[in-house]
């Protein structure tokens, strides 16, 4: 069958062979009619497929919204978060559609800002974290586990010494399954929280700012780095120029290289300003609530767009 483009090129030749009367009549060759019918059928079929896909997508979005609303976080999360907000010295700044959340307060002549993001919820890989060799102890423990045989070569087995056959002697008081041990019940119940990066900025007029990078997890806030900036604007560089100026400064050594007493005093410095256990418990729970709220909002926006 000739293509429509080929037909259009040959039409003048066909018309030349026709009488003047016939030439004034619309050309109805079988090939032309078949091509036009095929094009019409293709267009109709494509339109129907597009409509069906759009309807299927809208239905799927509706089911996802319903599912998320059924699986919304436990009410205790909302109660705990609200209780913290009501009783804390910090004010919360949370804009719908934004990933970052800010907690702000004044402490003497200091302005304190705590920033965290729901991005940590979306990027946390629980399986990768569970496979982290550091969670299984030091290298000696790893070697001991490699040397175990039979059922003793399992996570949580107690190494009390080896028998001649290479098996492990287990004392009676240790003959308890790891899942039944009180100290491990929280982990087995899945109550351990995901790690959240927290940025603490402490600013003093005329004295610059401290930018303290922390990690909040399982009710603890651990300091990772402490930076000092003579210009407070560099502590939260929002432009490429300020970021470049920030990179060129010496802001201090890694926190772990500091004197232990200095580390302890910096941790106490944060605690006195309310960056403490209560905040470490609040942040992951609030992220859980906000992420779900933002996700439901995103689903609704998607549904509105395709409907």
TrEMBL record:
GO cellular component term, pick one: mitochondrial matrix
InterPro entries: MAM33 (IPR003428), MAM33_sf (IPR036561)
Residues forming coiled coils: none
GO process annotations (BP): cytosolic ribosome assembly
Start and end residues of each stretch annotated as Disordered: 148-191
Protein name: Mitochondrial glyco protein
Organism: Aureobasidium subglaciale (strain EXF-2481)
């Amino acid at each position: 069958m000739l293509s429509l483009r080929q037909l259009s090129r040959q039409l003048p030749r066909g018309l030349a062979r026709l009488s003047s009367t016939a030439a004034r009549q619309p050309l109805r060759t079988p090939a032309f009619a078949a091509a036009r019918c095929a094009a019409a059928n293709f267009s109709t079929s494509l339109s129907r497929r597009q409509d069906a896909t759009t309807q299927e997508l809208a239905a799927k979005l509706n089911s996802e919204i319903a599912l998320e609303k059924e699986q919304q976080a436990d009410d205790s999360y909302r109660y705990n978060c609200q209780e913290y907000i009501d009783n804390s010295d910090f004010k919360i700044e949370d804009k719908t559609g934004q990933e970052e959340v800010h907690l702000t307060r004044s402490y003497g002549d200091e302005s304190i800002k705590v920033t965290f993001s729901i991005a940590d919820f979306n990027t946390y890989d629980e399986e990768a974290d569970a496979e982290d060799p550091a969670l299984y102890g030091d290298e000696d423990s790893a070697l001991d586990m490699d040397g175990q045989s039979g059922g003793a070569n399992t996570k949580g087995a107690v190494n009390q010494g080896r028998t001649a056959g290479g098996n492990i002697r287990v004392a009676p008081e240790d003959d308890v399954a790891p899942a039944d041990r009180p100290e491990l019940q929280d982990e087995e119940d899945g109550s351990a929280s995901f790690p959240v990066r927290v940025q603490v900025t402490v600013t003093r007029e005329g004295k610059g700012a401290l930018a303290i990078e922390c990690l909040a997890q399982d009710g603890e806030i651990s300091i990772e780095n402490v930076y000092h900036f003579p210009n407070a604007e560099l502590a939260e560089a929002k432009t490429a120029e300020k970021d470049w100026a920030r990179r060129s400064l010496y802001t201090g050594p890694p926190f772990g290289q500091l004197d232990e007493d200095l580390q302890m005093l910096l941790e106490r410095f944060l605690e006195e300003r309310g960056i403490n256990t209560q905040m470490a418990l609040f942040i992951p729970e609030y992220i859980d609530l906000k992420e779900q709220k933002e996700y439901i909002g995103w689903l609704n926006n998607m549904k509105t767009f395709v409907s």
